[in-house]
Amino acid sequence: MNIAEELRALVGPSGVLEAADVATRSAGVWRADNLKAAALVRPCSTAEVAKVLQWCHTHKVAVVTQGGLTGLVHGADAQSHELILSLERMRNIEVIDPLQRTATVQAGVTLQTLQEAVEQHGLAFPLDLGARGTATLGGNAATNAGGNRVIRYGMTRDMVLGLEVVLADGSVVSSLNTLLKNNTGYDLKQLFIGSEGTLGVITRLVLRLREKPTTRNMALVGLDSFANVAHFLKHMDRSLGGTLSAFEVMWQSFYRLVTSPPAKGKPPIAQDYPFYALVESQGADSALDSQRFNAALESAFEAGILADAAISQSEADCHAFWSLRDDVEQVMHLGAPIVFDISLPIAEMETFAAGLKSALPGLLGKHQLFIFGHLGDGNLHVAVVVEPQAYLTARPVVEAQVYGALAAFRGSVSAEHGIGLEKKPYLSVSRSDSELALMRTLKQALDPLNLLNPGKII
């Protein structure tokens, strides 16, 4: 059986790449290796996706769906005998409804493309992350992406009103709901959001839009204790009356890294504080919003919460502040990073970080530790950098330390990046036996032949 030829009959001659051509493609924006698969198929519509999956179901061919390949947990990795289904030709924004404040899109539309399109209508799609130019909306939904403004707008699942999904046997479930309130039985879209392509292929989405904020105020502050970090979060959230849109924290080592050469960033405040917070507020009244933001900072100073602060005076300042937090690439230049995306109660973060800092020298010897992340919504990113030659032996040691500590705090092994292959062995840290059993029941019910992204999550 010539898989490529049979698939071309379904999606046209330009819609299929054979194994040799697949092998010339990068496996992802963070990867140095290339793809492998028996073939790569690129349908243009839900109908073509349905034909492909029906063919795969008949011939028992496993399928791995791929979007922008910006994931970090190997959730879109394929084997040489599997078929890659890429949504790269499904890039139409079908409808932007300014009154209902919804957008209906194909799953291959990139996040940045939608952001820019809705801005022309005075609207915003508030999901935002560093890979916005490459990450696709179908992939964002399949992984329940988080990003920079979860504290105000929630995860991707909070922005999805409806989905169209193709099941493993090629049947189509079209639930393109445009209503904010639709309380009619099971919310079926939630089965597929965050399922990483293991239960169905998301082909179209209805997304909730918001009125575009017209003002932005930001500050980068230095704090002398973690207790003050927590106090500052509550203080700003309370003082800003619902306009707090981001609260990012950097431990000192990360701040020094991204504000020292060869990094391009310059330190807005001194590098001597143990903690740094980037705080952002979005609103609609320039004078009032600035007054309220500055008053909140001033009262934090008076209360002894802040040690130092740089306050944005322009959009250029805001961009510069965010560029520091987003310059994660600096970690990659230091050696071989072992990275984690975890969630735990804010009250436990200092104890967790101190325990990690204390344990790693005895476990690894030479290493570097960096901690930063979306602390406002309980999400930390941890990077442990080791020498390249030590990576393979160090990784399981570090994982056992990080995930073992999380279990004691009832934390999550994945705050926003998903499970994929990388975190699969540790899923039980965050999920009970009964939850895992129900996940397997759902997988068996919707994909009894285990053809969709097999081996991922569970």
Q: Which strand order does the major sheet show?
A: 15-12-14-13-17-18-16
Q: What would you report as the Rg, rounded to the nearest angstrom?
A: 23 Å
Number of domains: 4
Known CATH architecture of the largest domain: 2-Layer Sandwich
Largest sheet: 7 strands, antiparallel
Structural class designation: alpha+beta
Count of runs of 4 or more consecutive helical residues: 15
* Fraction of residues in helix: 25-40%
Short note summarizing the structure:
It is built from 15 helices and 18 strands. With 458 residues, the protein is an alpha+beta fold.
Task: Explain the overall architecture.
This protein has 458 residues and is α+β, with helices and mostly antiparallel strands. It has 4 domains: 3-86, Uridine Diphospho-n-acetylenolpyruvylglucosamine Reductase, domain 2, CATH 3.30.43; 93-211, Uridine Diphospho-n-acetylenolpyruvylglucosamine Reductase, domain 3; 215-326, Alpha-Beta Plaits, CATH 3.30.70.2190; 333-433, Alpha-Beta Plaits, CATH 3.30.70.2740. Helix content is 34%, strand content 22%. It has 15 helices and 18 strands. Strands 15-12-14-13-17-18-16 form a 7-stranded antiparallel beta sheet, with helices on both faces. It has a 5-stranded antiparallel beta sheet with strand order 5-6-10-8-9. Strands 1-2-4-3 form a 4-stranded mixed beta sheet. It is globular, with a radius of gyration of 23 Å. The mean pLDDT is 96.
